[in-house]
């Protein structure tokens, strides 16, 4: 991106870099304050059964509504928080917020809605993670089966065995496990062999318009058949159109998450919309 300098002699590349550093500094300056001021917000996005659209669960997603920095999506601050360690506090804050909204009982069935949460590898690998998680969930008297722990493939890049070990412990305690963004990371199939997961979330890249539709379809079909054989529930992420939904339905995908059903909503709005 090296370009010619502007009139002050600063190249475009330098400007972008300076802005990024400036944002990083500003974020780090405000993160603690933001937590105290409740600037991090819990959004929930539904997962829906493809057969009839019924609510099948929800994913908790963080948003940062900062009076000083504006409304920030997770991709703009999570990588930084993973580097400076603040993600541990944020992940636990989100867990507490989810516990506060529990129970959400699905109208008609009377069953508690399962909420899935994203935990960073940094959080999972922090000493005392399991004990702390148990403390939060048990003091709120929430059944472990109501919480699904989503971990992305990339979490296993380092210390694979140690991460697997933590997840096995959680599974043995009754928490549900989901592998997030399946198919984007490294050694997906190898992980599938080893990890005691309940849910496979297929990355939205598999629905990308930039790939040959018949090839995408074959890959999707293969993944869905394999997941079925393994007894896993498959959730396809990023389903935006009715055409995509009906293709997935045909291929036998049980659950979808995406704008075709709903964008992530502020927690209160989500409850109102679904009568929870
Ligand atoms: P993810 O866990 O894979 O979450 C799904 C992402 O896909 C969300 O992005 C969601 O808004 C987006 N999405 C859902 N449906 C559609 C669709 O139909 N089309 C498109 N284009 N996108 C869709 P979001 O909320 O921006 O979150 C990005 C990532 O940030 C998440 O990816 C997750 O890895 C991470 N994240 C979010 N909240 C937390 C958190 O509390 N803790 C941690 N550690 N990570 C989080
Ligand atoms: Mg996720
Ligand atoms: Mg995902
Ligand atoms: Mg993701």
UniProtKB/TrEMBL annotation:
This is EAL domain-containing protein. Residues 24-276 form the EAL domain. The chain holds residues 324 to 599 of 599 of the full protein. Signal peptide: none annotated. It comes from the Bacteria.
